[in-house]
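Hi P.,

Sorry for the delay on this. The queue was packed all week, but I finally got your sequence through. Input first:
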Amino acid sequence: MDAVRLVVIGELVQQQNQNLLRLQQAVDRRRRERRRKDRVVWVRLDTEKA
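Then the structure:
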């Protein structure tokens, strides 16, 4: 019984870790895209000045 419980708990923990990883990757992707947009805006401003 204990062994089965350990296996189940291990699988649950693994699922949680995968969900957290996916969330983190999504956040990183969003941040990267936002940074890229900011850079494009700055470049456009510099070109207009010049």
